[in-house]
UniProtKB/TrEMBL annotation:
Coiled-coil features, chain-numbered ranges: none
Upper lineage: Bacteria, Bacillati, Bacillota, Bacilli, Bacillales
Protein keywords: DNA-binding, Transcription, Transcription regulation
A GO term for molecular function: DNA-binding transcription factor activity
Domain HTH arsR-type: 1-107
Name assigned to this protein: ArsR family transcriptional regulator
Amino acid sequence: MTKNQFDQVDLFKALSNEARLKILYWLKDPTTHFDTKRQAIEEMDEVGVCVSLIRDKLEMNQSTTSQYLSTLQRAGLVEARRIGKWTYYKRNEQLIHELANFIETNL
């Protein structure tokens, strides 16, 4: 992994928060962790999970949830997709895989 692909300090800072780690864990298998009655399974797999479902699962307010998601997005760990007035988040599996390889080889 090169310095151009991600900022290592920002990435590890993003991972240093329990709530952000939970978000990443939940997004790994969204149909297990989020209410599929409120958002279709196919939609979760294709576009990600609606921010309102993440907020409800975290049991935090919209502002705090948005800050956590923004930190994860800046670090490259999640990708956001806006559809209408809704924003959906899913993991950046490529970067997470590269991070795992970086840790295994370099740390």
